[in-house]
Amino acid sequence: MSIKRIRNENFEPFINDEGFYKDRGLDRPPSIQNHKKEEELIRNGKAWYESLDPHFRLYYHNTLSSARRHANFLNVRSPKDSLDIILASEYDHSNDLFLKKQEVFKQPETVDKMTFRRLKNTRDVNIKPPVYLSHPLIKGGITERLSTHSVKLINSGPHSQITNHGFSRQNVDGNFYNY
Question: Rg of the Cα trace of the chain?
Answer without folding.
Answer: 30
